Each structure stands twice: as structure tokens, then as C-alpha cells.
Amino acid sequence: MLKKRIVGVVTVKDGWAVQSSSYSKYLPLGRPELIAENLDRWGVDEILLQSIDRSRSGLGPDLDLLDRVSKFGLGTPLIYGGGISTVQHGQDVVRAGADRVVLDCALHSNSALTRSLSLKIGQQAIIGCLPVSFNKKRLEWFDYVRSEYKPLDKIKDVIINSVVSEWLIVDPVNEGKKNKFDAQIIEPLRGMIKNIIVFGGISEPQQIEDLSSIDQVVAICVGNFLNYSELAVNKLMQEVNGTQFRDATRGFSKGVSQ
Predict the structure, then answer these.
(1) Is residue 247 part of a domain?
(2) Which helix (H) or strand (E) holds 142?
């Protein structure tokens, strides 16, 4: 079995790490750089910083956050998402310490962005994000900026033509809810996407094991549930049977053209 990765997610709103539920209810957790340091120390394969309010507010990426995190000298590869809408934004994020970037809203408003950005930082450094859920048995994409669902058919060309290394498939309805990720949202996408990262309502060892058995799934994101106890990552990995995890990104190379 191909070894899979565990990604620790730090959700950031208004500069603070928060415990999120369906991206609509939030409880403060503290300084995101300290939580990232814990995840690094506990041994996750990657850390995803998602600044969920940047695109909606038109603020651009949170470079101050990345600067604070980079000062800790983390050894874990860092992914950043939030507010990236231009090639310059993507380059700035990598210069600020991120190994890879996540693109969501920009994928749909600027179809040429991923291709242009890949020439600057490399395709392996770009992750596309697809928050999706079923509406009347039809899989739809959730537009965070406008807070509305859109037919997936309208963005199939984005999925097929975007130059990205992996796709982050998010269950926005069940995000933050214990053991609630809807694995059915993956099925309509398996024919279009080779490398899938899953996130939203993932908390249990059996759940992680089941998701890891899907060939296209290369990584599992866990957010709120890693903050409940000391060494939560190690405990989670010890409890998962039959799934091999690895740090597949430490060998990634990134480059930023001037």
C-alpha cells in the first residue's frame, strides 16, 4: 500500500487559531504559531495553515502569520491557504516560508492563475481546493466568498485543466464535526482527480483507515481533533491499523523566480 500522510490543520480567523464547525461557528484556541509548533513537535507529516477570512475580506495572504510561524524554525513542511489571488501572492507566500500553497476561490475567478504560478514556484507546490457537498443528490461546489453552492459541472474544466499536484477535497457541511466526513463526495471526483487530500469531520482511527484505503487518497487532514490531548498525533497513528503513513513532502523542492 502506498504510504499516506497525516496533515495537521490550523484554522485561522482574525489572526487567531479557532476551533471551527461547518465554517460558521468558532471557538478561540490561541496563537496559531504555537499550535503549529505543537503539531511539528508531535510529528505530523505536513501542517496546513488555512486563513479562512482573507479571500472574503480581500486582504491577500497573511504574511505576518507566516513570518511568526517561520521564526519557530519548524521542520515540518508548511502549506498555506487564504487570500491568494495573484501570482505575486503565491510567490510572496513561498518566500515567507510556505512549502506549498492552496488555491480555492482564485481557481474559479482566474483560470490562468495556476498555470502562471506553476511556472514560478513549480506544479508540485500548488494544491487545488474543492469544498463540495450534495444538494438534492447532486454534488456541488461551495463558493466561500459568496457563501453559495454552484453546480460542479461549471468548474469541471478547472479541475481538468488546472496545473496542480493534489486536490484538497473538503466537506464544508461536516467540517469540525466528529466522525462525520461524507466519503461519498469523493466518488464523483475519482475519475477526474488522481491525488486527493481529504478534510472535514475526520477524527477517528477507523475513519482514517477507511479513507486511506481509497487509492486516490494520498493524505488525511485532521483539524480540531488534534488539539484535544497531548501527543494526539502519535496516539492516532498508533491506533490506526493497516495504514502506513509517511512524510512524502520533505523531499519536495520549491523555487521562486524573481
Answers:
(1) no
(2) strand 138-143
